[in-house]
Specification:
This protein has ten helices and two strands; from the N terminus they run αααααββααααα. By secondary structure, it is mostly helical. Strands 1-2 form a two-stranded antiparallel sheet. The termini are far apart.
Length: 278
Amino acid sequence: MAQMTLMHPMQPLMGKGRYAMPALLVKDRKLLKKIIDVGKEYVAELERVSQIRRPDANPQTAHKAFKKRVLETIRQFSRDLKPKIQRELSALRTDRSKTLNDVSLSEDARRKEAAIIDERIQNLEKLRFAKARDTVATSFYVHGETISKQWINMNKEHTPRDLIAGLRCPSPHENKLERKSRAMANIAKLHHKNRQKDNLPQDADAYETSTRETLSFLGKKITRTQSREIGELVNKDEVVEAMREMKNGRAAGLDGIVLELWIELANSYEVAKSEEKE
């Protein structure tokens, strides 16, 4: 059986995307307790690596490992809470793929088995979409006439985004169009890095003179008080205040952890601290 894939040359490559934790899990007390336990181990590790700093053991590597463990905890917790219908659909899709690739069966047998599995998948999908429709209808009934996030998003105009389908590889030996987002990001990074180095003075004195000339075009300058404030270290309270002033409901960062989780952890810490004082 011959197979082929038709692709438009300017069609963007749509991958699986990055994982982002469901925002609904932020308020789950069981998950927060698990993350707090991970955080306690992280604090102990920070105290240990702060005494003897090594390239493979320092506060930065400890923080990276902490965020990785937090994300692993969230993903495992999400899998445990996965609805029964979704688990059944995943299992059926796996069985369908195995059936279609089973060389021990004839082509007719594979088609019959796959057709039976497809029918079961279709029935489950109908049930899942019916439940989703009821959830949306309920949400509209509760929030539809209220000035809320649901109401604003429902009446917001969603303009199409300009997608970059691909970037041409800068190497003269590879005359191809790169369509993977990670590779495209590396191409853009390399391009801007090289542009920063264009026409730079090679002599140190000439470089300093060029820098002063460029800065002289800036009309607004900071005061000595502002300069001193910029040089001061950022404390914990300022970080927490900055997080709370940010808007909720924003997309997660590269680590897949939403802002609301860090705010919830900060609130839990303050509550626990006040209880200790009492």
